[in-house]
């Protein structure tokens, strides 16, 4: 028989096949005129916005929705006036604010005393400013003001808002916060319904009337014309409209692999106008998955207070913001990106404040059995480990995932469950770090995470200030067998005071692209020392020998110190049965000083660490 061979379904094996959505039903109508279909779709999409705005009248917010109204400012002078609203847990909105600007040292001022007093503190306005202190208020006439409470404070933490002259301690106008005020809050929704193309997520949140937060988003990117899509009705349908992706683009969606993103509704559209959010293929009219929007929303208004992550935060980044490698392994300076070199050639940090969170990306040239640590120094003005609040980021080979763990350093010793370099969870606290993304490419490990500027752990966690610089520390070191931080080399830690203002923008001083740096080879390992035939042995604590000593000899990470027997670094000791040996131990005798207390014991464990074991493990 002459002719082209075909598969069982009649398709040519050599002809490329177009993507088609999978379906369980047999179509009853075939549309052959593509031009007519396209024209009809354009008309339908053109009608979609009008239909959306006309739907769901019973759930729509007021036309001028500014949050929960508190009331008018009671004026005492200088023409102060305005109406105050609670936008969310940490944001106030003043509608129609007026003030003549003639006082020399006036600020928005809040506090928890019975009446406005010098015991309060400033709400910076504008929120972003240059200089060490916020600027004094200038003149305003019918201004709309967004006030973000500083240092993680909540509206429930204050009793009043005042326009206050700090120099002369004069109250120009005040309003009191009603006790027990219920403020609008973000709403948590279910995850995306899983229908096609591997679409899934964790629980989606509505942050305000226009903003979705979609964590742990997965999608294979194979749909040819797929978009975020919103509309009305009991199911997603063609009468929807496109929603820009996390970088504001209306290009077809790329693939996602567990990323956390934020998207915002276009134009005047709000959450009160829609019934669902979906990932929808326009060309084939196919729903990959969706989530429904409740009718009983009490969410913050969209006044610009929700700061979404900048485009560079996402991976892959856009060509307009990604650092491009140029000559000699340096990087061009991208716009609006904060980046500091912490350890030259080994570790960089990027950061941004987004709402009540600080979002941080660590890039480190480390191996899979190493960690990188970054956080706030134990003492401002110098790089101090003791008392520091750090995040340890690494790849967990046992669990096959990237991790970011909250640590508190109370002593320069391995964690014993009470003292030392300890994960917060081991000393009665909690891991306040939210892991965002991890990747390893060309020898560089990248871990992104976020944390509240102010947590509710006053001992283990330090606040990230948004109004000034603060000293930070960083280190790179080995992981122990428990996947916890071990001691780092003295070269792999910040030696100078590095200060960062986490509210800054365009603070970019990184010079090297870490993946362009050539890895140096290590020195030869020292030969193993031997003690044989000696009856008296003195044991002392000393340095580990770096790349030639303890770790390459044993295959285990060290805590920066090692035993020396008769002045030999961790030698092999040969003993004879029936003979008596005397050990003189100089390892410290004060168990309350973990950094100086090192009991000596003999074991068949190649790693040791008896003091870090639980009672059950010791048995």
UniProtKB/TrEMBL annotation:
Residue intervals of the DM13 domain: 67-178, 190-294
Matches recorded under Pfam families: DM13, DOMON
UniProt feature, compositional bias: Basic and acidic residues: 1-12
Domain DOMON: 345-477
PROSITE patterns attached to this UniProt entry: DM13, DOMON
Annotated keywords: Repeat
Highest taxon of the lineage: Eukaryota
Chain positions covered by the region annotation Disordered: 1-27
SMART domains: DM13 (SM00686), DoH (SM00664)
Protein name: Protein Skeletor, isoforms D/E
